Hints:
Layout: H1 2-19, H2 22-27, H3 29-38, H4 41-51, H5 70-80, E1 85-86, E2 91-92, E3 97-98, H6 112-118, E4 137-144, E5 149-156, H7 169-188, E6 191-200, E7 209-220, E8 223-232, E9 238-248, H8 251-254
Antiparallel strand pairs: 1-2, 3-4, 4-5, 5-7, 6-9, 7-8, 8-9
Helix pairs in contact: 1-6
The chain binds ligand 3VV.
Amino acid sequence: MIRSCFQAVRTFISHFPVTLCPDAVSHGALIKSTRLQCSGHRSARGLSMSLWPLSANPRDFSLPNASWSAEMQQVYDHYNALCEVKTKDSEEKGPWYKLPSYNRSLKHAAGGVYLSKIIQSKSRLFTRSNKEYGAAFEYVIFMNKQEKKCVCAFQSGHLLEGPPGHVHGGAIATMMDTVTGTLAGYLAGPVMTANLNINYRSPVPLGSVVLLHSALDRIEGKKIFVNGRVTSTDESKLHTEATALFISVNVGHVFGI
Length: 257
Ligand SMILES: CCCCCCCC/C=C\CCCCCCCC(=O)SCCNC(=O)CCNC(=O)[C@H](O)C(C)(C)COP(=O)(O)OP(=O)(O)OC[C@H]1O[C@@H](n2cnc3c(N)ncnc32)[C@H](O)[C@@H]1OP(=O)(O)O
């Protein structure tokens, strides 16, 4: 046990900077698991759930579950159909990748599943800290690397209420930070939010499904400028607009050392 922990730490330290650079992420573990999910969510769910929690494969929180409304499932199916497909003889690269989503961002790094049991083992990613399906943040992010943009389908749960019957502005900000930050991290490696500027245009009904769209504006050295929007799933209604600045950081900064 102790030996395997040390091995995990060694693997992690030797891989972390590499796995968090976008190309390594997109061509490494991230895509490996994305291929699994894009090949059909029903079988992927069966596979990941049957092995979890004993396997090194962490639970992917962005796979469909019983709490998802028909609308949420419809959006998932739409983008999932546009994801890369692995055929018998070749790989057809679609423009979209479904990102897996774990309850600790550490788990995206090689060896991170083991390390997460050692380092602050009770810590959880804020948006994935509630285990009850559908109670809080249900979401899935699809990344389009070619166009440097992503789309997130978000279904708000009853624990996210702000004004009666509507989603709390802080919960919307959390999702905006998550989606814009995931895009920035995917394109530029480890980042932290320096600035997040939000305009709330119309309230989001609690329990509804909305889309969060995010796109890269520009990269200037360490600075990654990203924009974001929340709309209805048919994009006819604008709920929220945002701009965000992320700064590339080294791994030590992420861990506070
Ligand atoms: C990785 C790939 C993954 C892909 C797969 C997906 C995995 C997804 C997994 C899970 C998803 C989760 C996603 C969640 C995302 C959430 C992220 C957060 O919430 S982070 C927590 C909140 N943020 C903080 O706590 C930061 C606190 N602030 C700091 O640590 C520093 O201030 C920092 C890092 C932001 C900047 O510090 P410095 O020392 O590195 O940089 P300096 O030298 O100060 O600034 C660099 C440049 O940036 C400008 N700058 C800095 N802060 C600015 C600001 N607030 N506004 C405007 N400009 C600013 C400066 O003026 C400077 O510009 P000039 O180079 O001179 O042109």
